[in-house]
Amino acid sequence: MLLGSKELNRRDFLKAGGMSTLAITLGSTGLFSMGGASSALASVQNPTSGFGGYGPLVKDPDGILDLPRGFKYKIISKTGDRMSNGDLVPGNLDGMAAFQGPKNTTILVRNHELGTNAEFPVNGKNPWSKGAAGGTTALIVGQNNEVLSEYVTNSGNIRNCAGGPSTWGTWLTCEETRELGHGFVFEVNPHEPENEMSKTPIRDMGYFSHEACAVDPATGIWYLTEDSNPSFLYRFTPNDRSQKLGSLQKGGILEAAAIDELPASSASTFSNGQRFGIVWKQINPERAKEDARDMGCIRFSRLEGAWFAAGTLWFDDTSAGTGKLGRVYRYYPATNTLELFYESAASNDLEMPDNITITPWGDLWIAEDGSGNDRIIGLTPEGNVYPFAENTLNGSEFAGPAFSPDGNTLFVNIQSPGITFAITGPFARRNAARQRAMSYAAPPASFAPAVSDKLAAFAEKQGMSILEAAALERHGMPII
What we know:
By secondary structure, the chain is mostly beta strands. The strands form 6 sheets. It has a 6-stranded antiparallel sheet, with no helix packed on it. A 5-stranded antiparallel sheet has the order 11-12-13-14-15, with no helix packed on it. Strands 3-26-25-24 form a 4-stranded antiparallel sheet, with no helix packed on it. The chain is built from 6 helices and 26 strands. Helix content is 9%, strand content 34%. It folds into 2 domains: 57-439, 6 Propeller (Neuraminidase); 445-475, no CATH class. The chain is globular and about 65 Å long.
């Protein structure tokens, strides 16, 4: 299933500044709603190209995972199973990353979002805190997605929710808490499990309720989301930006995003010469949230997933908006521009976006964490929307979608009862051009934020995209 939408590039979208609110929000009325009438569904001329989706989902006779025709899943790990080191697979599977391993294997590093007590804890030999049940495990996956080994990589954490892969083959696992002295980022090297680095918090990356992080490979700067209410968007500039093992442990500067008046040299055509935009304010990492709040930084509702691709940071706010159903933002470090890409108007569009990723062929994939059966939803640079997977087993969320290095396998978790899947099928080939196109594509009509005539005219006058104006207006920029 997918939605048809004429391709609209960034420049054309800007020219739409004179469109009425009705036209801009046409999709939210139901015409392009994913849960609406079948007449809204576009036909797929090549359903396995990946450029328009993969066709309707096929009902799984086992009642676990609905996928498009031609795709299949394999359960490769379950909570409570025996790992190769003799321990049981821990519970609450969450964020995950895939790395190239030796002899054409894939190494998965997987979070376990556990607190201080758990039926299936992470039993490490070198924990940071002996009273904490969270941590990470690794799976070495060989041919035919057979698990060759499975073992603990770090332990003694609380609520390892998401994180992010480094460019040098390690996993940054993030604690989503500020309880019992926890609330830090740890770096996990799957080749040296449970080493000293894995139990050493990177304190300059902040003490707060972390969710996800993503690195800009061009600069070595990390961006971090916070899962609390309110939450803030942070960036960490390492003192050592060599992007090598051990570089993050040398410290750095932590900042939070704010909307403020830009310097006079950036002034717009306002009669008073003011122009507002994104600025970054340095904060004390040991009191990150308090400083961000006191300095008037942007208050989000509850930030979740983050992914960096083709010069763009994608991140989402899972409970933002009037219906508290979520927003998706994109940020361009090169121009210091924040855009509101998506804003849910109804749960049948997309409900509570959580983990996100850019696929090897350039689509944006969003995992839901809402009520009912959660899905993985794909958005294409050409303006199509399609479901790729639906959890028909229970109401648990999808977590940690990660593609194998060759792009032929999707690994993803259902958090509870705790299942890791390997999904194979006719995925589209890697396409760097479409990844770049996704960075500047207009959102599908049904996902675009509602924009008033006044805001559209303001955006055109200021030389902003409508999406940039929407992001700033939602967070307090004065519209004159």
